[in-house]
Amino acid sequence: MRRKIVAGNWKMNKTLPEAKLLLTEIDTYIQSKPPKCEVIVGIPFVYIESAKANHKDLNVFSEDISEHRSGAYTGEVSAEMLKSIHADGAIIGHSERRQYHKETDEQIGAKVKIALDNGLTPIFCNGEVLEERKSGRHKEVVKRQTEVALFGLSPEDISKVIIAYEPVWAIGTGETATPEQAQEIHAYIRGLIATQYGNEIADSISILYGGSVKPSNAKEIFSKPDVDGGLIGGAALNINDFSALIDIYSEI
Ligand code: PGA
User: Domains in the chain and their CATH numbers?
Assistant: First the structure.
């Protein structure tokens, strides 16, 4: 059985008091009504320590990680540091990191590996930009991103990775891929993994969809057979929408 996951990605939002409030609301909600899916919150580095100290059972992820182990990398945060503050995992290769920080597939692969080596679960993001979709190159792009970043991993390691397919044209734009478009690419990604690692591993890996998922469109997307949940940006920033998404997925 694949893990069903609703994961939030807060990006660069919220002050400490706001972050504490939302984490408490999420934790309280989950305790009062245990969901039938896993819940992850991806939050800014600076809030992780307090999040884990106050909410031991919440799955708390960073939004990035350094590709380097340690040393003279001003401003970077290492896997070992994240582990030492009890982070559970890291979102890696988000399109905003690829776009604004020029992260390459090779760097993203190094980040995935270093996360795994330190016992952190990576959420590896892939997805095409609008021109690539329009010119029909979306599969080719997702294939390259996935192969370069993940296919050097051992079967044991890749089994621990969560994948998030996020078409860049659907992130924060209000545009969503249709459930059929999501299903098509998710099945395609699973097929790539099956070819490389076999069906058993491919069938066990959770592939999340991300890009303007909200309570009004989540049911159709989450119902698709190869969609194992969502990586949620805007709708993860308030308890009403985020808890509604958890409920919607729990009922599918
Ligand atoms: P969005 O962001 O839900 O606001 O589109 C998703 C993401 O970037 O992970």
Answer: 5-250 (3.20.20.70)
Q: How long is the chain?
A: 252
Decide whether any atom of ligand 1 lies within 6 Å of the 91 Cβ. no
- Among protein residues, the one with the nearest Cα to ligand 1's atom 6 is 233
- Output the CA–CA distances (angstroms, integers) from residue 13 to 82, 189, 190, 244, in the order listed: 19, 31, 32, 20
Which residue's CA is minimally distant from atom 1 of ligand 1? 233
Model confidence pTM above 0.90: yes
Provide block-wise average pLDDT over 10 residues at a time, the chain (252 residues): 95 98 98 97 98 97 98 98 98 98 98 98 97 95 98 98 96 88 97 98 98 96 98 98 98 94
SS3 61: strand
| CB of 245 closer than 6 angstroms to any ligand 1 atom | no
